[in-house]
Amino acid sequence: MRMTRADVPVPLVRSGEVASRTAIRRANLGLVLRDLNTHGSRSQTQLAEDLGLPKATVSTLVSELIELDLVYQTDATRAGAVGRPRQTVELRGTAFCGLGVEIAATGARAVALDLRDDVLHDHAIAFDRADPDTVLAAVAGLIDDALTVLGAAGSQVLGVTIAAPGQMDRDTGVIRFAAPLGWSEVALVAGLTERLPANIPPILIDNDARLGAVAEYAVARAEGIHDLLYVTGGLGVGAGILVDGQILRGAMGFAGEIGHLPLGNPDLACPCGRNGCVEATVAVTAFLDAVADPPHDLRDLEQLMTDLRARADAGDPAVLAALGMVGQGLGVVVGMLIDVLSPRAVILGGYFSYFGDHLLTHVRGAVEARAIAGQAGGCEIRTSGFGFTGPARGAAHTALEAVFTDPVACMERLSK
Amino acid sequence: MRMTRADVPVPLVRSGEVASRTAIRRANLGLVLRDLNTHGSRSQTQLAEDLGLPKATVSTLVSELIELDLVYQTDATRAGAVGRPRQTVELRGTAFCGLGVEIAATGARAVALDLRDDVLHDHAIAFDRADPDTVLAAVAGLIDDALTVLGAAGSQVLGVTIAAPGQMDRDTGVIRFAAPLGWSEVALVAGLTERLPANIPPILIDNDARLGAVAEYAVARAEGIHDLLYVTGGLGVGAGILVDGQILRGAMGFAGEIGHLPLGNPDLACPCGRNGCVEATVAVTAFLDAVADPPHDLRDLEQLMTDLRARADAGDPAVLAALGMVGQGLGVVVGMLIDVLSPRAVILGGYFSYFGDHLLTHVRGAVEARAIAGQAGGCEIRTSGFGFTGPARGAAHTALEAVFTDPVACMERLSK
């Protein structure tokens, strides 16, 4: 009963027929790019079918994209033994990319993706302290290095997007409040801009969980999944919600703040001052407390989680019990979110993604016991394939988004 | 940071320029009607400003709507002592209406609204039993009576929409599962159609909480509120969620199923077999149990709630304590929903709407104690002005929706 793209009613076009035609043509150019990004190479006939456009229109659009240097056509090759030689349209690989940077309390990571979602660059650094000055200097260095490396490799960076926890003003680039960093009112974009050379690509910011959801959607879209929920597992726990492929931000911009939903354990104190919060039960610190090892160095969570996964595989009872506790708590909150949002898929990211069925069994059991719709209402629950890199990947996708929305405008900006 | 209507990107138009122009003109006709519905009478200059359209375009659209008999222009009158005489465009009042019918476990209600949202008809009946045959016969009679009364009054019914609790297939008109009615797999639309005369208006069905949200949006839209949450208070508890003016259904159609979210009271058994559910704490039966009166006749909930409100006003300690318990539980779930969805307003409907500040004080207190964003993230919490009539009103709005989407197609269907 979902509306398909073709059912979407035609909205008011305010600025007259000429503007409308130009806007439609530009949007169609973007849709051709998006289709190639989702499905890989495509013949012009397939593109026409995918997009419901006349073949003549597709031919014109493809010519224009070739001129913009965003796609190319392969030489005619025979797909099989019979039939006409088939020429395919392909995205031009590494000429353009988007740079995403995730800032967390213990470090930052830069990921660059090209138009085909291939990783051109992936570099992580650790912080000793997460005060704004330290982090801004380190992240500016990370961006500068990435721009240098990518430039040397012949890839033009279309934009930079920063993923950060907490609440932020995307228009001004200011972090309003980010509990995991201990930040309030930090002018992130301005602070990075003044530490970087002039004429760098535009810098945007967005919430880490939302960008994690964007990264998952780049995969899920090809499966026909347009409504999904991404749950971050780190020092904080947040959700990124996509409804019909769009980020749900909410009227006041706080949507997805699931870290302090009550899980019904009144004895479990949360650093926020309340009791029984989601974060107090399932944040990475709660998991590590439950494992009850000697204190760990949280600056290399990837290695730490890889080690703990190996211990789970080997049947370590402390690790398995801790995963049972986390999975139960996570299942209760995921069940709530399924009742409220009825997504097609729930994807568990961050440290959750390291534990596969060790965790999913408990999560699914708790969902099944609580969610009102049988079999979780047909919603699929799985772990992310991106580990801790999801938000940075989603940020890189977002940095590339302009080229899929209006490639002409994007290329015009570049040539200035 | 919300996108305004003017920011919405122009989508792909698949069927060529001619279709596109027709679709845009028809959509614009609907937007003129919607603007008049939201703001009341409007001069052509005001319409042009509201919609961002050239005055010449508005003039053409108004002429066409006059021809369709949907609007008329007043005689030129002087708005004040100075200035040019002002001619205004008005919706033609009662010539067309939508009929909404809510089915609940104890009775049904029919409400007809005209294009200006004025109530043309409001009639409620009670059931002794809620088995499908009894209800279908009674509801068919209710609809037949309404069509007769409205026809005699010269108002043409554009459509009939049924509001019912639970899960349903809107395409086939089948109720899949409705716990408050004890129904599963009831072919509601087919059952009504076969009990009604031929050539009645089209009958649609939708979920009661979602239609309650639609009724609230008819008011909230004029306040600039486009993201809201409506919570039903009756034998069941559900939520209708509007995101940017659109109903959030979720990929699997279960969105808003909040009745069995856990509120953290493991000792409180719910008829669903789980413990501590929202419904076990705040459904009308839980409230009445807490008041601890002798058993009430639930078939006239309106009178019962009016009486209980009077007792609350008079300081009856049992009623006030019960409202404290309900308000606390409701506040916890509303706080959760605010964290997840970040709406601009939460509106408490059904029996909740009878108790104003007696209830709201407790709800707001619990939200403030739990929701992560201070001051509930700027979200307003209030009671509905529609009492138990919200879902039927929302159903009537939905029955009228076609005329605001494409008035030409709607009038063409009528003349067949």
Automatic annotation (TrEMBL), chains A, B:
Q: Which GO terms describe its biological process?
A: regulation of DNA-templated transcription
The family database entries (Pfam families) matched by this protein are listed as: HTH_IclR, ROK
* Residue ranges of domain HTH iclR-type in the record: 32-74
The record's keywords, sorted A to Z, are: Kinase, Transferase
Gene Ontology molecular function, alphabetical:
DNA binding; kinase activity
Q: Does the keyword Membrane apply?
A: no
The record ties this protein, via InterPro entries, to: ATPase_NBD (IPR043129), ROK (IPR000600), Tscrpt_reg_IclR_N (IPR005471), WH-like_DNA-bd_sf (IPR036388), WH_DNA-bd_sf (IPR036390)
**Stored Gene3D superfamilies:** 3.30.420.40, Winged helix-like DNA-binding domain superfamily/Winged helix DNA-binding domain
SUPFAM superfamilies for the chain: Actin-like ATPase domain, Winged helix' DNA-binding domain
Per the similarity annotation, which family is this? Answer: Belongs to the ROK (NagC/XylR) family.
Write down the PANTHER family for this protein, in alphabetical order.
BIFUNCTIONAL UDP-N-ACETYLGLUCOSAMINE 2-EPIMERASE_N-ACETYLMANNOSAMINE KINASE, ROK (REPRESSOR, ORF, KINASE) FAMILY
Q: What protein name does the entry list?
A: Sugar kinase of the NBD/HSP70 family, may contain an N-terminal HTH domain
Species of the source: Actinokineospora alba
